[in-house]
Every structure is written in C-alpha cells, then in structure tokens.
Automatic annotation (TrEMBL):
PANTHER family: TRANSMEMBRANE 4 L6 FAMILY MEMBER 1-RELATED, TRANSMEMBRANE 4 L6 FAMILY MEMBER 4. The keyword Kinase does not apply. It is found in: Membrane. This is Transmembrane 4 L6 family member 4. The chain crosses the membrane at residues 12-34, 46-67, 87-114, 158-182. The lineage of its organism: Eukaryota, Metazoa, Chordata, Craniata, Vertebrata.
Length: 199
C-alpha cells in the first residue's frame, strides 16, 4: 500500500475515535447520567477535558492531514518531481506528533481519573472517598459513594473508554510517524508524478 493510502486509512480511523472521545468527555459532565447540582459535584479530571481537547480537537487536525495525503498532487519543485509528495509526508510527521501529544494527554488524565476514583456524595459531603485505585479490586468499597446513582461504574466505564481510545490513537499516530519517515525518505510508491511522468 502507498504511504499516502496508508495515511488515509489512519485518518479514516482517527475521525470516529476523536468524535467518540469528545462524546465520552461530555457525558462525564453528567455524573451517573444526570445533570450535576453544582459544578463542584463533578470529578476534577473531567474539567481537564482530555477527551475533548486531547483525543478530540487535537486529533482532528492530524486526521484531516492524513486524509488529504492520498490526493496530494503538489509535485515538482526544484526540478524534483517527487519533492512535493515527500514534503507532504514530512509535514504529516509533525501533525502525527501533535496527535501523539493530544492522545498522550488524554491517556494521562484518564489514568489519573481511574486511579483517583469519582467524586461522589459520602457521609453527606461530596468528596473523593477512594485512595490509590483501591476501589478497582474491591467492589465492596463502591458503597462509600451514596450518590449520584451508578456514579462509580459511570466514571470507570467512560474514563476506561477514553484511556483505551487514547492508547489506540497513540498507536495510530506512531504508525504515521514511521509511515511519514518512509514516505519522506523513499517517496510515495504511488507518487503522483512517478507513473505519469514515465508516460
């Protein structure tokens, strides 16, 4: 497969992942699926917007760049027919780096949130009743959260999804860094000028 075609496949995969990450982060603003009574009833890590900014907005730009690489036809500069394609592939490495930073940020926020646990009502006050992820292996501790209903599985499920999707995005962007390096050094095997210039 051409390096541009491979990048397009990555872009097609990253777009829905970015949208899902944004949706997961938005849902976290509704503890247990219900509107929060007060802003300070929402888990702190939700406001870091790892899914909205990191795996969402910052991932849209690389995805769009990757989608456009297959159709890039900026050929012929300095007498070299393939340098336009090579420059486009080099640029994709930079955008893949942006994606790596965004997805990495989302992964870190999600991992911290999972370890920290949800903010919930415990002994009539909103606090973080869990320490160092102890609730992950002991479901009996979940009873410490008196409200909102289903807050622990809600928190755990959505942040786990953000973590998994963030890791997939990191992997895909890392693939594009390698693909971009190959495209920069070797050119696109289906270069827009390579086949046409020979005719």
């Amino acid at each position: 497969m051409c390096s541009g075609g491979f990048a397009k496949c990555l872009g097609i995969t990253l777009i829905p992942l970015a949208i899902l990450c944004i949706l997961c982060n938005i849902l976290l603003f509704f503890p247990g699926g219900l509107p929060a009574d007060k802003k300070d009833h929402i888990t702190d890590e939700v406001f870091y917007c790892g899914g909205i900014l990191g795996s969402g907005v910052l991932m849209i730009f690389p995805a769009l760049v990757f989608l456009g690489l297959k159709n890039n036809d900026c050929c012929g500069c300095c007498g070299n027919e393939s340098c336009g394609k090579r420059f486009a592939m080099f640029t994709s490495i930079i955008f893949a780096g942006v994606g790596l930073v965004g997805a990495g940020y989302s992964c870190i926020v999600s991992a911290v949130a999972i370890n920290h646990g949800p903010k919930c009502e415990s002994n009539s006050t909103f606090t973080f009743p869990f320490e160092n992820g102890n609730y992950l292996s002991d479901h009996g501790l979940w009873a410490k959260c008196e409200g909102p209903d289903r807050i622990v599985p809600w928190h755990l499920t959505l942040f786990s999804l953000l973590l998994i999707m963030g890791l997939v995005q990191v992997l895909l962007c890392a693939f594009q860094v390698i693909n971009g390096l190959i495209g920069t050094i070797c050119g696109d095997c289906c270069g827009c000028c390579g086949g046409e210039g020979a005719v």
